[in-house]
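Posting this for the archive.
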Amino acid sequence: MLFKHSNGIWYIDICPERGKRIRRSTRTKDKKLAEELHDKVKHELWRQDHLGDKKIYYWDEACARWIKEMGHKKTLHDDITKIKKLKPFRGVELTNLSRQFIQDTVAGIEGRNSTKNRYLAFIRSILNKCVFEWEWLDKAPKLKLYKEPKRRIRWLTPFEIEKLSNALPPYFADVMIFSVSTGLRKANVINLKWAQIDLDRRVAWVEAADTKSGYSLGCALNSTALDILKKQLGKHDEFVFTNSKKRPIKQLPHKIWKRALIRAGIKDFRWHDLRHTWASWLVQSGVSLSVLQEMGGWESIEMVQRYAHLAPEHLHECSTKIDLAWQKKVTPEKEAISSHVKNAA
């Protein structure tokens, strides 16, 4: 049957002989077009029941299965947000999700190219599941990603960090200095508990469930980090860092951070850049990229290659080859003889 929604759009409501009830939008206010689509869907269902045609699946069904199977995924809430924003996909058969349709829909999403690429990657993941695991599709369209600028590396000098620290409230400054000293991400720092710290062994650890890579991370505590921790002793029984009222920090106020940056005369600097600062200081101090990878908990060496340009010292031996070339000075007479020998050969 067909019925009209309050917005004027016609909807299909079909109960097949076998399978689940189908209730979906026709995405049109034209009753004749809606009837054509209704008859088409009904005909396809009949062929599936009586002639064994392959069942037709919809984007909505794929999303529902994705959510069910990806319940363990830490960023599942981001996936659900993407699904909600992909409104034109609702009620569309998977076979009708052409490359052009997908690209045009994503192009209309506000945000940078990196944001659009995350949507394309998400869509591609679901469609690949439909092809290779669920066998709902024979093939998935190839999607073209947008060009993105190279990842920016923004870091501060120790002098700038000190200026920023002085511009922040004491409790906020402690969190920042600890972050720069350990390279831990914001969530891992503000949620840090005393149970995760061994002051005698000078180590802290983050469980796999709380890391981006999904692997447990051990953190060696330097003297600066230890001094910050000792300042927090006695403030709270469970959590390390507290606010000015000695309550656990739930979030760091963005307004306070912005005002501190202005007072310190620092521009274009995000909280995550504290991690870049930590990594940059280590690399410039001679720490190898492989050791940095282990310290920061990155999954692959490729993820730390962005810091390689900060430590070109290992290239010095190679660069001296140019000095050797200059030392091998050749007189015009020797050059003429060498050229004559080459021509004779």
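The CA atoms of residues 198 and 204 lie 6 Å apart. The radius of gyration is 30 Å.
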